[in-house]
Amino acid sequence: MAKQHSKKFWVTFWSISVILLTGWYFFLQIKNQNIQTINTVIDYLPVNLSKKTELKSVAYFAKYLFNHDNQEKIFLILFQNNMELRPGGGYIGSFGILKMKNGKIVDLQTHDLSNFDVRVPNGIEPPYPMKQILGIKSWKLRDSNFSPDFPTNAKKAEYFYSLGQGQEKFDGVVAINTNVLSSFLNVMGPIKIAGYPGIYNNQNAILNLEYQVEKGYAKQGIKKEDRKSIMNILASKIMKKSFQLSNSKKIELAKIILQDLKEKDIQLYFKNSHLEEKAQIVGWAGTVNKKQRGDYLMLVDANLGSFKSDYYIKRSFDYTVDLSKNIPTVDLKITYQHTGKVKDWMTKNYLTYLRVFVPDGSWLLNAQTLGKVKFGNELGRKYFGLIVKVPLAQKRTVELKYALPKNLILKNYNLLIQKQSGVENIPGHLTVIRKNGTREEENFILTSNWSFGIKK
Where are the beta strands (DSSP E) in 10-147? Predict the structure, then answer.
């Protein structure tokens, strides 16, 4: 059997790749320049304004991380398994503490949350419906990402960390979803691990790893406490291979990381207000937009003990807004398809707590669901919350009809739809019925935040 490696391999790989490689990508092309010079060069690049803003943000972050200022920078790294979806991305099974100084990693620590959370005092009431459905009696770090807003989750994770007698004061928090592994293997190609069956590639790695640590280890005679050693071995191989890539491949890999940031598979939070502002501007901060004055929608799921069933769930939605009425109304249909066929170690009937975030002041008119709808206000938005059950190999559609605030539509209609971290790309269909009764329709794939606007 392959030798077990320290968990530091895993954290080192992700931390270097996510935090440093994006900066390296830029400085590979423009080195030994101050930030003003770099920004000037960016202004002359033949790319659109959003890409220039993104590159300037990368340069700013890189300067912060690589600066030889003799200041130690400490980051909390949250590893989220989005096959078990939570509002902030996925179930947090472990976390790392990364310390940097003068552009170099000086210390790494890792913690299994099943051990760390024992140190967090009991008595903190968990959010609905964790207690009612999952039977969780006290809120802990592993479930801290119950908001769709990453800054909120980052602060909550720090809070639980301190309750667990953690001593570090963090400069930032980084959340990384399981999907990022596929991004790396997409560039690097397949990897074979001595002593373990199969080949790990961008198509099968996540599923094969999940099987190995849940079932495969027992058939291979590996002790339960050593079952996750394959993750460290795979990480060390990927890390080694990443350093052997050609410059063109490294740039390709960095570009994919930038895409993962855009799609919220990587989320960043900084205590430094200037860094946090730049992360929010380019869409890397995982924030819920509280300033959108027009129409708004965000669909947020929380897997309620359905194992790793999110791997099998396909989502789609239809959004029809009728502006021809005195008070604009919305007909929203959300469809879940469970592609799993039989109950096994990884999946069973899907059970999720769905929250539909809409403009504050919206009013539910009708709901076709199997249960009661819960109402609430959060992050400057109103939400409708409901339990959705999707049996194996079946499809379920939830339909909500609601009125938008009367004063929402002033002169022009505009809609912002935000994507939840950790979900796969979602097909959407939009129908807008104008004031004069004419219709406009558009199909789209929700890969990141998406907006639409028409004149009255």
Answer: 72-81, 91-101, 104-112
